[in-house]
Amino acid sequence: MLTYLRNLLLVLLISAVAAVADSSAFDLPGPSVSVRVTRAGKSLPISAVPNLQPGDRIWVHPELPTSQSVHYLLIAAFLRGATNPPPDNWFTKADTWSKKVREEGIVLTVPEDAEQLLLFLAPETGGDFSSLRSAVRGKPGAFVRAAQDLNQASLDRLRLDAYLDAVRKTSDTAPEALHDRSVLLARSLNIKLDHQCFDKPSEQQAPCLMQNTDQLVLEDGHSQSMVTALTSGASSDLIGQLSTTRVAGAGAYSPYVGVIVDLARMMESFRTAGYQYIPALALPKSEALNLRLNNPPSFRKPMSVMVIGLPAIEKAQKPPLRAVDANEIFCLQKPHLVLPVEGAPLVFSTGFARNMVLRLKSKTGKQIDLPATANPTRGGFVIDVRNLQAAASELSGAGTIDGNLTGEWGFDAFEGPGFHLLSAHASKWTVPPGDQTALIVGRDDTLHLQSDASACVDQITMQDAAGKEIEATWKALKDGKLEVQVSLKNEAAGPVMIRVKQYGLSNPDEIPLRSYSEVGHIDNFIMNSGDLDGTLQGTRLDEVASLQVNGIQFSPRELAREGEKDKLRVSVPDAAAASKLHEGDKSVVHVTLKDGRSLDVPTVILPSRPKVVLLSKNAEPGPSSSAMGIHLGSENELSQDGKLSFFLKSETPSSFPRNEKIEVASADESFHILLGLEDGALVLQDSQNVLAQLDPMKSFGSSAFGSLRFRPVQVGGGNGDWQPLTSLVRVPTLNKIHCPGSAAEKECTLSGNNLFLLDSIASDEEFKNSVSVPLGFRDSTISIPRPAGDVLYIKLRDDPSVVSTVTLPENSRDNNSRGGASNNDR
Fold first, then answer.
1. Which residues contact 598 (CB under 8 A, 6 or more apart)?
2. Residue 561: what pLDDT?
3. pLDDT at 12 over 50
4. Is 816 exposed, middle or buried (0-12, 13-18, 19+ CB in 10 A)?
5. What's the number of CA atoms in the CB half-sphere (13 Å) around residue 37?
6. How far apart, in whole angstroms, are the C-alpha atoms of residue 479 and residue 473?
7. List of long-range contacts for 368-372, beta carbons under 8 Å, 24+ apart
8. Spatial distance between the Cα atoms of 522 and 528, rounded to a whole number of angstroms
9. Model confidence over 132-171: pLDDT tens digits?
10. Please, what is the Cα angle at 181 between 180 and 183, to 5 degrees?
11. Quick one: which of 346, 377, 381, 737 is 20 to 30 A from 77 by CA?
């Protein structure tokens, strides 16, 4: 019976929450209340005050129209904790229709030990003040919760509004910049960004980015979250289940919409014949608290009392602002200089951060302040460098300069992250010795430049001796170097001049160099017996048209440059031609150039390299793949905790040597292993065929993924060619899926471990109804589309091109669905 009642209560509560959430838009404009706070003789508008403190004087002025037909009482209530009712003198009543209040407002002084402040706007009924005071004193904890949640939800609404306004403005004025600005907005304001919106036509991108607003705002990482509050009370088990639903934000989202769950529950319990309580979001702008309601006020009994939360009474919580890249160097002279920051979205959505400057110290110790403005569409603080010219002499030649973002957070001094900056100055640029002869006419080349002023480079140009512009593009590298791509395909050899223009300097730095007409030179020709390919090494091998070895014609394939040398791969037309070249044959390679010239170089055919062929392979799934019926969508995939066995046949030599090993490695060879007979990883079936066994988790560790390839390796006999083997993917452990009892509910909750290994989850094979798993996802549950049957479709982050399936077994269901009519918990 107890279990039945608990389940019944849960169903009723979820239904009530869903009904309330349907009206959670807070799109009804309410009245406005002006608020100003004075501390230690300094006054600030409420929009610039993140927290209150004992002793603060708070001026409150309700901005009700003179034509207001219903008289409203303004009641201020200070609270001092969930278990400590406030004294009677912590309540203040004001008749908003009186001349004194209309003209002067009221002044409140924050008492010692107070922790929260609530404002109530209540229609005058007689006995209203005493009944409201009794309600607050009777259950102070509920009103403490209301104050916390309202304040937090208002802050989150400010972030959401800032994001939506910026997206609309960008879509209207600069749609081509929507992608880049939206990415920066999402980082600055901690908003969930759906990158799939950018796959849509341009006119549909902005509406896509602004849909599902109740799931856009993530926790700000600074203020107390509602999810924590919901799961810390006496009913934490029940509310904990609610907090994993879509309505309550699934644990990853802020309390903006989820606040309705708790407030609706709390306020409904205080409904009397005379009053019902409705929450009001307070959106500050200067001194005005502009109220937004989610339910229209009622002026019939029970009449509506608007509940307004003000900032908490506590010590200042400085924003956890940090530089995106603490090692990056910025140029002070760069126009519209932006210092990228993250971690504190309230800096961008509120007026709490005031009088922000970038504070520098010159080489003489002089302090230089440059105004700084938070701009979420730029991803950081925009620095006003217009007054920098006056301090140019103080900064010139100072090398790297350290600066800090400083200002005020409300009434308190605030020091933000530090940055490394550079003042533009004439500089001497160096070219590495290996690049000094890198400019070869007739092709594209790359050279590198380096100096202590690389962060201030604005433009790089190149001219020949006659002043003709030569095409050149460049990019900055992380080590302070510049990589310059130069096109000399149609240029003549001779002197060239590279000019490096820095921000703020009128004269560019000049670097004289020379371009060369390279004379082709053949160093050697390398080929192994039995191979179809050989390698020609030398210089200017792009001029090679063909070559012959013992009368066998070779054709050029890929050209690569390593250091100052070219490597050209050449191949014979078929195996029959290659079989005429034997180990130890001495010959002369005849190289024909495109201009008709020919060059000769002696060579010796090297011993044959080991060669094996893959006969078969078998992948065994690991524990994570089988925990909830994950079936990889490609036979070429291997789960990281699985095992792979494959048979190989030795072709060269015809018998598999006992000292030969099989090397298995990733495509970039960042991880690899040698399998041998001596360690049991290779087992001979007979003299020619061998069974190889691979345990990826044991061999490579938990962070290995991607394409695997193999090759034979002989001690002293060279290495064979790489061949593809399989694709290694990491698989999460899926525990169960929970679906609401009503088929109308379109979402379920999937639980498991390492869900960040998923790229996306869908209810259909075409992924028309899908959800993406964001980068950095750390939760053990995620909301997913409701499965149409007993199969889910997933894409793994390690191989998102393949669709895999998850079979939902009967034994993964929750206990509360067994034996009943519901079959929705799996």
1. 590, 591, 592
2. 84
3. no
4. middle
5. 24
6. 18
7. 368/394, 368/395, 372/339, 372/405, 372/407
8. 18
9. 898 899 889 888 988 888 888 899 889 888 988 999 999 8
10. 70
11. 346
Most confident segment among 14-23, 115-124, 271-280: 115-124
615 touches 649 (CB < 8 A): yes
Question: Using an 8 Å Cβ cutoff, are 672 and 663 in contact?
Answer: yes
- Does 564 score more than 60 pLDDT? yes
CB 739 within 8 A of CB 748: yes
The neighbouring-strand residues paired with 784 are: 748
- How far is it, in rounded angstroms, from Cα 107 to Cα 407? 28
Nearest partner of 716 among 611, 610, 612, 613, judged by Cα? 610
Q: How confident is the model at residue 675 (pLDDT cuts 50, 70, 90)?
A: very high
Structure tokens, 38? 């004075």
Radius of gyration of the chain (CA): 36
Query: How does pLDDT run across 290-337, given as a tens digit for each residue?
Result: 999 888 888 888 888 999 999 999 998 999 999 999 989 999 888 889
- Amino acid of residue 822: S
Q: Map tokens 């009944």 to a residue.
A: 131
Sequential DSSP letters for 84-100? SPPPGGGEEEEETTSHH
Which residue type sits at 155? L
By three-state DSSP, how is residue 543 classified? Answer: helix
Q: What number of helices (H) and strands (E) belong to the chain? A: 14, 50
CA distance 274 to 556: 93
Calpha distance 749→732 (Å, rounded): 15
Q: Which residue has the higher pLDDT, 665 or 581?
A: 665
Q: Which of 651, 632, 639, 644 shows the shortest CA–CA distance to 673?
A: 644
- Kind of pairing between the strands at 509-515 and 533-539: unpaired
Amino acid at 343: G
pLDDT given at position 461: 93
Locate tokens 């006969």: which residue?
615
Task: Retrieve residue 579's tokens.
Answer: 């079989």
> Is residue 407 pLDDT above 50, yes or no?
yes
309 - beta bridge partners?
A: 118
The pLDDT of residue 254? 55
